[in-house]
Amino acid sequence: MIERVNWGITMVDETDFERGDIDLEQVFLKARQTTPQMSQRLQDAVLADALAFLPQSQVEMDIKAKPETRTSSTDSAFRMLRRNVKDIVGGWHALGGLAVASVVGVWFGAAPPTFLGGYQSLALATLYGDTSFYDNVLDDFDLAIVLNEDLK
Amino acid sequence: MLNSAFSKVLRHKALGQGAAVAVSDPAKRDAALLRRYASGDSRAAVELTNKLTPRAFAVAYRVLRDRAEAEDVAQEALLRLWKIAPHWDDQGAQVSTWLYRVVMNLCIDIKRRQRGGTVDLDDVPEPVDPSSSAFEDVQESARYYALMEALDLLPDRQRQAVILRHLEELSNPEIAEVLEVSIEAVESLIARGKRALIKALGDRKGELGYYDG
Questions:
Q1: CA atoms within 13 A on the CB side of A100
Q2: A64 and chain B in contact, CB less than 8 A
Q3: Residue B52 and residue B82: Cα distance in Å, rounded?
């Protein structure tokens, strides 16, 4: 190591450090070649952190926003209509009752039970003014007899 | 914790993606990767992890010489990078410089806490050089250990400056940025550090085989 005084300042020539017996550059070179190997655990942990803190991409935000956009057109109109019908009829219970009554009505219309024969004839007689329908009524019910007498 | 198979798949993807990033300057490439990460690109996360983790760990390990502590420091430094990514200022420090600075500060914190602690030689990795003979291997190992022990005797700033300059091969302006001192201060730290190393190693010349030649 050589120190020189130049303009009153002590100057140190670095190369003189390495000219001695100790070749520091050679020691550093060997040390650089000895790269500390990190563990797979560290690599995995850092990657897990990176993915955990990964900001949401624009594409992901667009995908999440899309269903909201779709419902604002046709779906929302349908939903509004459904809500209005429900409000008018009186809620889901009322709608359920109405549906059951409709199904039973269609069923009785297509295949009426035998005990309803009289009522059916009475209805036809009343609708069309044809008294021949009362015969069926008379066969089935006393009430029909009374009605028949009243009509005559 | 991700399993290693998943990591391998992501790493493979990252290698394919790496070719697509046509940025030649490493500093700009790091910044570009960080921008991609901030915009939600998971492949950028993998690339940055693969690139920066070994560097953060290596420098932390060289300063601390403790594998577990170096791993903690590397993970913490990168965690801070992920958190700051959305607010990263391209006009500020380079990504690698910023990371070195965080690693160094974390190392200083640890060193301060354990001031007066001893060095565990079992933690020092064996130097591997397949081209050299067994005798040279032993001698190189002895010199490597001696260098690490001598580095440990240096004051914190000197040790960091020497490690960054001669083991991490950073330029003096980069080191100045990492250590947040002037370039002149870096030159002084390195010069004093190397002088102390020469002296420490010189005291062990015979042991280290420097009389052979």
A1: 6
A2: no
A3: 12
Name the closest residue on chain B to residue A24, using Cα atoms: B198
Beta-carbon count within 10 A of A101 CB: 10
Question: pLDDT 10s digit of each residue in chain B, 213 long?
Answer: 445 544 544 444 444 444 444 556 777 889 999 999 999 999 999 999 999 999 999 999 988 889 999 999 999 999 999 999 999 987 778 899 999 999 999 998 888 887 655 444 444 444 444 444 555 556 677 778 888 889 988 999 999 999 999 999 999 999 999 999 999 999 999 999 999 998 888 887 766 766 644
Q: Which A residues, 21 through 60, put their C-beta within 8 Å of a C-beta on chain B?
A: 21-22, 24, 27-28, 30-60
What ipTM is given for this predicted complex?
0.72
- Interface check B195 vs A, CB under 8 A: yes
CATH fit for domain B124-213, picks 3.40.50.720, 3.30.70.20, 1.10.10.10, 3.20.20.70:
1.10.10.10
Backbone angles phi, psi at A20, to 5 degrees: -80, -160
- Choose which CATH entry (3.30.930.10, 3.30.420.40, 1.10.10.920, 1.10.1740.10) describes domain B1-122: 1.10.1740.10
What distance in Å separates residue B116's CA from the closest CA in chain A?
24
User: Contact A44/B4, CB-based, under 8 Å?
Assistant: yes
pTM (two decimals): 0.57
